[in-house]
UniProtKB/TrEMBL annotation:
InterPro entries: AsnC-type_HTH_dom, Dimeric_a/b-barrel, Tscrpt_reg_AsnC-like, Tscrpt_reg_AsnC/Lrp_C, WH-like_DNA-bd_sf, WH_DNA-bd_sf. GO terms for cellular component: cytosol. One of its GO terms (molecular function) is sequence-specific DNA binding. It comes from the Bacteria. Keywords: DNA-binding, Transcription, Transcription regulation. This is DNA-binding Lrp family transcriptional regulator. One of its GO terms (biological process) is response to amino acid. It comes from Longispora fulva. Residues 11-72 form the HTH asnC-type domain.
Amino acid sequence: MPDKPDSPRTLDDLDHKILTELAIDGRLSMRALAEKLHISRANAYARVDRLVADGVILGFGARLNPERAGLGTPAYVMVTIEQNTWREVVARLRVIRYVDHIALVGGDFDILVLVRAPDNAALRHLVLEKIQEIPGVKGTRTWLVFDEATGAGPH
């Protein structure tokens, strides 16, 4: 799991507007960003640089359509682990192919893993031969995802 900054800087309204625009289109040029927000290019560069330096923006990349990328079998795998093994289990999960997201959670399960496999056979192999074989994993429960939608997000 990524480290959290010690004391996060308070984001102002302009920071939030920048984040919203970049979340919509991460390829937006600084010129276009500045024009949309009615600020100078120098201000846009400085703000984005600060958001990157502060760890608010973690990077820029392509958002994929998993189905078109050959990963049309998404599932959530709920993992129950032995006490005090979460660091090791998470470290092992992070390097397994098709693991998209890992969350340490409270409740009936300890770790929630979003996986995106190409098909049911790959999903079965992933759960039974990769995840369940990790030392410290006591059990799993898998929920198939039939359809997905994205929300507006925080920005």
